[in-house]
Amino acid sequence: MDKPRQKQLLYRRATFATKDGQNLEQLLIKAVTTRKSVQDRTFKLADGDMVEGTVTRKDKPSGVVLHVVTYTRNESASVVKHVAAGTLEGSVDTAPPPEDSEYMDREVFAIVRDNDIALCCTNCREGTLESYLRMLLNASGQPNASSDVFLMPVANVEKAKLIQKEGVKSVMFRASLHKQTLAHIDRKRPKGKIVSTIKSTLSAFVKADQSDAAMQEEADLSIALEVKLNRKSGGLAARELNSFALDLLAGDDSDFIIITGKENKIKGDEIALQKGCNLPRKGKSVQRDAAWQALRQYISDLTKGGLVKQ
Fold first, then answer.
1. Is the pLDDT of residue 277 over 60?
2. DSSP string, 286-298
3. Are residues 50 and 44 in contact, defined by beta-carbon separation less than 8 angstroms?
4. Gyration radius from the chain CA atoms
């Protein structure tokens, strides 16, 4: 029997603007009534890759389950050639996909309940799911919601207490180079010198006329900025840096490292709610139904623990 595959289950909260107050689950249920087939839920990305909603349907007793994959049509895969005993050098070759299939590049399993999302990724981050959701909602006639869908991590409050106790020495912040990052900063972040500097820096790199299809390609590019408190600085500068760090912990971003006044390091991927688990293998992936069941249990445990509605 194959060893189980270790995976991370992530919790995210969807944010977006709608006029009627509908949640993401309701929007997806509406979307699949008009985009019923797999072909209707397959979209082309800017780099030529395809993103496919292999499964997007209602779950029981509630929610929507998703299986989202990406692939490049007719792309060959690298293979390691068998060699005879005693061979001194091997070789790597390529093999085309089977006639009725494509080689999978990235994969996301997810369950959506209200605006709460539990997901499990392979070879990608949640940006793959974000891009699919935007394209699906837009294609189903819901452009207002699709234009600014973000899946936000939710922070562990204990890290906020550490910042309040020790203060902040520096923050290393990474941001994706797509226009939705700027829209998110405008909507979510408080005004201040640090935020204004980050926004002006990003604006120099982000294409103003960037298409929705280009967002997945640009989601793989990011810029790193370090905001550091001078040794003798204090007062207003220190308070603003502390406020910026606390804002990061509030769940708006995950690509950052905070160094406290006592040199404690807080990484974005350590503060978000997540859980490790072992899932049955299926090739380079995991079994779909087992992944969904683990995600159902995870989001139920968070709900029971009072963490989903922080």
1. yes
2. E-HHHHHHHHHHH
3. yes
4. 21
Number of helices and strands (H, E) in the chain? 10, 16
The pLDDT value given to residue 149:
83
Which DSSP symbol is given to 158? Answer: H
pLDDT in tens, 284-301: 999 999 999 999 999 998
Distance of alpha carbon 240 from alpha carbon 237, whole angstroms: 5
What average pLDDT does the structure give for the chain? Answer: 80
Name every residue whose Cβ is closer than 8 Å to that of residue 47 and which is 6 or more positions away in sequence. Answer: 216, 217
Closest CA to 9 of 105, 135, 116, 114: 116
pLDDT band of 236, cuts 50, 70, 90? confident
CA distance 227 to 3: 43
Opening angle at CA 41, ends 106 and 22, nearest 5:
105
Q: Which one, of 195, 215, 196, lies nearest residue 206 by Cα? A: 215
Three-state DSSP state, 138: helix
Structure confidence by residue, pLDDT tens digits, 116-158: 999 999 998 888 999 999 999 999 988 777 667 888 877 656 6
Provide the strand spans (E) within the chain.
Answer: 5-15, 42-44, 50-58, 64-71, 77-80, 92-95, 104-113, 116-122, 150-153, 168-176, 222-228, 256-260, 265-267, 274-279, 281-282, 285-286
Residue 104 has which token pair?
């999978």
State yes or no: cis peptide before 153, omega within 30 of 0.
no
Residue 23: CA count within 13 A, CB half-sphere: 11
